[in-house]
């Protein structure tokens, strides 16, 4: 018995030891593999399995209990309605060589949404529909079945009527605002050169309007906080030409697709477009400002997730929107003297990364946003945003870096990448914003992005103008390569003095190469809108192997003599540009004045962008070999300057009865199109285009260019003023 008992005890001890060893070993074995957690729109609890998914916050909290392994959080299909941002911090990072991944489940297209539904619509006698708005919600934007509605807006008001000063504006009686039921719900939208302002009316007294402060203070001159000392683009400056439009008043609600917010009744009223049924339509307004915030996180991947209906609340407050440049605003009632934009404020964004390291955002979808898409700031390093789409954004798509020229090492942006993204129709509301903005970054890569239909600049890198505190900074070794930038600096949005690619500051080692730029500021009414704009202190930058066509102004601009040692070489373009200014700046081996792109240029352009794409081939210009003449010549502005393949040189007649310019093609030619590029002062207006087959009258100012599609067999093309006036042209192209 004793021997048997000893054997049993030894056996039991061995089994117990083995079991304990197995129990100890089990976590170690499991730890070597990835831990997958599941989240769903209706998820709850802490199990986080495919059968019992958690909420995103629940999955995050469960992930924090898992250590020593890769963590994967899979988001199931559907819309996740967020009342606050999903916050990921240092404790949510990959550790000890492991990673943390937040991604769409296989086949799923999850969306994090900040939208709030507007329901309970009732039809009014005038065809509009009205609904109550939930408490705490302010519908600055409204989307009906995913389509953006427009805040009810009126006509432009010229400065002669709406005269802006530091204290307010005239024009309340002439515009009818004095008789509006709720003028203090309305805003003035003003565009001055590269700036955009949105300030709410604070009061009406007779013909005088006052506006919320600090919005109006920060939009007008005299604060010493609005930019360089030479700045003349505030609402009370000589460059102010009037209000673009007033918006958000019931009296302005007259077009299908418009809406108005009544803050007193807490209602929104909408005039449907054809085919919209408000009994069935989904009406959403952005409400939650940020949807995902990574603060101090590292080694995190976010992949395949959509972000929609995030709000930007600042413009709805007394701060309004005092735009300074590129979508950054001046905020606060007081602040330090700031001529270099060091203390400007970025817009709110759906995704914000602060102080991140090795953060990767991939294949994300940003849409229907009240603010910006994504911000990488506050010392974010070695991080990337790639293969994502941005469409229908009120502000810019991507903001990288900050406005401090000499940050502490921990706050410096370094080695970040923005690549293979597609950006369309950003800056819908805040038209001074840009597609991709970068502040003081080093070793930034902006590569193979496709950018289309933006109101202002496409890509902007650098900051600080020529201010002393910004002349030496951390800017260096940035690469803007192989991007496709088309239809930016849109004329209808009235934003000026920008470019498809815009730079600021001395940034040695920076290269702009392989980009395809087409139709920047095309169709403008003045000489404005560049291809590549090396503005202000831009220095030590190389511009090479770019294809730049159909540009409203210069294909490359470097006007400031304190921007030095820039090089433009081996680019292809259909016009010319003045020599680069600044000590040590050179232009060499550029192929300018082309009327056909060679095969090498077509190949570069076709490869550019997130997916490559078509290239607008230039058309043969029959006028180029013709003989020009004009009725008279003012100074040295001879007729031949319209045939020199340079939209920066001008012809000019005297102001006289029947003034004309003409080109003789040398023989009768079959033509199909004529392009007429006005001169720098847009002096050619209300003119006739005369061929051997007849006359076409053009009303209003000639554009850059005015394009006439006509079929004619003619030897001569004449541009003439029927009455008394002047003909002044920078270029005339005649296509077979």
Notable characteristics:
mainly beta, globular
Description of the molecule:
It is a single chain. With 736 residues, this protein is mainly beta. It is built from 5 helices and 62 strands. The chain has a 13-stranded parallel beta sheet with strand order 1-2-5-24-29-32-36-40-43-46-49-52-54, with helices on one face. A hairpin with a 2-residue loop joins strand 10 and strand 11. The chain is globular, with a radius of gyration of 30 Å. 51% of the residues are buried. Residues 1-32 have low confidence and may be disordered.
Q: Would you spell out the secondary-structure blueprint of this structure?
A:
Elements: H1 2-31, E1 35-39, H2 56-63, E2 71-75, E3 79-81, E4 86-88, E5 100-104, E6 111-113, E7 115-117, E8 122-123, E9 129-132, E10 143-144, E11 147-148, E12 150-151, E13 157-158, E14 169-170, H3 172-175, E15 187-192, E16 195-205, E17 208-211, H4 215-219, E18 242-243, E19 245-247, E20 258-262, E21 267-270, E22 283-286, E23 292-295, E24 298-303, E25 306-308, E26 321-325, E27 328-329, E28 349-354, E29 357-362, E30 365-369, E31 372-377, E32 384-386, E33 389-393, E34 398-400, E35 413-414, E36 417-419, E37 422-424, E38 436-438, E39 441-442, E40 445-447, E41 450-452, E42 459-461, E43 479-481, E44 484-486, E45 499-503, E46 506-513, E47 516-518, E48 530-534, E49 539-544, E50 547-549, E51 556-557, E52 567-569, E53 572-573, E54 586-588, H5 599-607, E55 627-630, E56 656-657, E57 660-678, E58 685-691, E59 694-701, E60 706-720, E61 724-725, E62 729-735
Parallel strand pairs: 1-2, 2-5, 3-6, 4-23, 5-24, 6-25, 12-20, 23-28, 24-29, 25-30, 28-31, 29-32, 30-33, 31-34, 32-36, 33-37, 34-38, 35-39, 36-40, 37-41, 38-42, 40-43, 41-44, 42-45, 43-46, 44-47, 45-48, 46-49, 47-50, 48-51, 49-52, 50-53, 52-54
Antiparallel strand pairs: 7-22, 8-9, 9-21, 10-11, 10-22, 13-18, 14-17, 15-16, 15-19, 16-17, 16-26, 20-21, 26-27, 55-57, 56-61, 57-60, 57-62, 58-59, 58-60
